[in-house]
Write a structure and sequence with these properties.
Blueprint: H1 12-37, H2 42-56, H3 71-101
Helix pairs in contact: 1-3, 2-3
């Protein structure tokens, strides 16, 4: 989804809030695509989570593109949430399958 930079009919605070949600959602979607592409490999997912957490929580990167609220950071925060949600989904499915086997 492409969002126009020019949205004069939307007040700036609302536009910012909507852009943040779009960034988070795009990150979550692409995280789920990553999980799909790596065949739900929990090792790869956890490695990606560690990589993102290192990037997001590195105090040396708290400025610029990784500053709180910056678009690249918001996207990566959404990506991280998506990966964690995917692990929860996978874990629940595994538990349910194990219950059916027993």
């Amino acid at each position: 989804m492409m969002i126009s930079e020019e949205a004069p009919q939307i007040p700036t605070p609302i536009r910012r809030a909507l852009r943040r949600e779009v960034g988070l959602t795009q990150g979550r979607l692409e995280a789920l695509e990553f999980v799909w592409d790596c065949a739900a490999d929990l090792v790869k997912i956890r490695e990606k989570i560690a990589e993102l957490e290192e990037l997001l929580f590195d105090p040396n990167r708290a400025k610029g593109s990784m500053a709180p609220g910056a678009s690249p950071r918001v996207y990566r925060e959404g990506y991280l949430v998506g990966l964690k949600e995917a692990i929860d989904i996978i874990s629940k499915v595994i538990v349910e399958e194990e219950k059916q086997v027993v």
